[in-house]
């Protein structure tokens, strides 16, 4: 039987009441945080059922399957039943699938838990999977969809008895970009630091793990809003603080790609709201993206992508900096293009160094 991960605890409790705990639980997914937390809960639930001994294995090319099947036939000196955990880094292979199907038919009192990457449609058509699905418990662990990420954060905050100020959930979602582990770590810190469980935007900003990274995102927002003078000052500060240019470059390229994708989708007649959701543009970032979309044409977005590619080549050492300028200068030029500053002044000066551009790049704090 196949179930979502949220139903694992209830399904196991129901099986225990009926005296029919499965011999095998197959957990498949790519979101490690959800899998590890589910395993922790599973182990706690199994303790009162007599599963006091746990043995862990990892499937490797030279793995001896009799290690698992032999454990299932041997009696434990320490507990009534054993929990056998097998981690599969890639795929089971034909032999592995056959062994799991046979284990379902065995007379073992032990419980085998297999943890592996998310199975695709083709794998679920295999004979071994159909046997496992019919005779064991299959737990599907799907990634949290971008449109559900803020909801996941909200639920996690509530489960820790934390009350949040308006905007906290949206900001935390933007800052952690769908990274569940990063979001979970920040929430744990908030739980420790929050006074009487109250989480404010000020507290969130103070405890974010990487303040430089936060400033990096601010630079992107300022550029999208068209304020290059402010962006230039922020870039100078980041450079003086020793922030790696690759971090700034990555954040800029991420937003430029998003702009290009959105412009293309809108040009095809797609709904703006659904396009924003598909490209993970949430909450307070939507107004600045709308402003940028009015300023940047589809052709402009292609030019920005080309400039991004050149910056990436420079960072990788594939372009001569004597010819194109230092990395941070190139980042500034890309910011100026994204903000509309460079393009506007170039059009009024017929090329060359636009009036005021060099001054704007000066590290004035």
What does this structure look like?
With 365 residues, the protein is α/β, with parallel strands linked by helices. It has 3 domains: 2-141, Rossmann fold, CATH 3.40.50.300; 146-207, Helicase, Ruva Protein, domain 3 (Orthogonal Bundle), CATH 1.10.8; 211-360, Zinc Finger, Delta Prime, domain 3 (Up-down Bundle), CATH 1.20.272. The chain is built from 19 helices and 8 strands. The protein has helices at 8-17, 32-46, 66-73, 93-105, 127-135, 146-159, 168-176, 180-193, 201-207, 211-224, 228-240, 245-267, 272-278, 285-295, 298-315, 321-324, 327-339, 341-349, 357-360, and strands spanning 2-4, 24-29, 51-58, 81-87, 111-116, 137-141, 163-164, 198-199. The strands form 2 sheets. The protein has a 6-stranded parallel β-sheet with strand order 1-6-2-5-4-3, with helices on both faces. A two-stranded parallel ribbon has the order 7-8. Helix 4 (93-105) packs parallel to helix 5, helix 6 (146-159) runs parallel beside helix 8 and helix 10 crosses helix 17 (327-339). The radius of gyration is 27 Å and the shape is elongated.
């Amino acid at each position: 039987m196949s179930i979502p991960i949220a139903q694992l605890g209830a399904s196991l409790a129901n099986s225990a009441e009926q005296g029919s705990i499965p011999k095998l639980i197959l957990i498949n997914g790519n979101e490690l945080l959800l899998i590890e937390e589910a395993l922790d809960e599973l182990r706690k639930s199994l303790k009162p059922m007599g599963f006091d001994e746990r043995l862990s294995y990892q499937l490797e090319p030279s793995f001896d399957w009799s290690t698992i099947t032999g454990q299932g036939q041997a009696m434990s000196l320490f507990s009534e039943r054993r929990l056998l955990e097998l981690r599969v880094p890639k795929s089971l292979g034909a032999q592995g699938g056959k062994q799991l199907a046979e284990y379902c038919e065995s007379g073992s009192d032990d419980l085998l838990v297999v943890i592996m990457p998310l199975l695709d449609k083709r794998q679920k058509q295999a004979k071994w999977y159909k046997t496992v699905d019919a005779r064991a418990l299959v737990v599907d662990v799907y990634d949290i969809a971008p449109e559900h990420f803020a909801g996941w954060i909200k639920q996690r905050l509530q489960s820790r008895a934390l009350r949040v100020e308006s905007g906290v959930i949206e900001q935390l979602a933007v800052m952690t970009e769908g990274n569940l582990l990063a979001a979970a770590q920040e929430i744990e810190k908030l739980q420790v630091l929050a006074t009487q469980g109250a989480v404010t935007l000020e507290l969130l900003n103070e405890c974010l793990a990487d303040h430089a990274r936060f400033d990096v995102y601010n630079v992107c927002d300022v550029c999208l809003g068209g304020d290059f003078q402010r962006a230039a000052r922020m870039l100078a500060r980041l450079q003086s603080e020793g922030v790696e240019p690759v971090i700034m470059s990555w954040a800029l390229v991420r937003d430029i790609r998003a702009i290009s994708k959105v412009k293309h989708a809108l040009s095809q007649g797609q709904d703006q709201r659904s396009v924003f959701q598909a490209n993970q543009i949430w909450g307070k970032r939507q107004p600045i993206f709308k402003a940028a979309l009015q300023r940047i044409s589809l052709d402009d977005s292609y030019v920005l992508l080309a400039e991004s590619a050149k910056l990436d080549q420079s960072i990788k050492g594939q372009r001569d900096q004597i010819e194109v300028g230092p990395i941070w200068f190139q980042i500034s030029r890309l910011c100026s293009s994204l903000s509309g500053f460079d393009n506007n002044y170039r059009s009024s000066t017929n090329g060359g160094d636009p009036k005021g551009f060099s001054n704007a790049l000066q590290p004035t704090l």
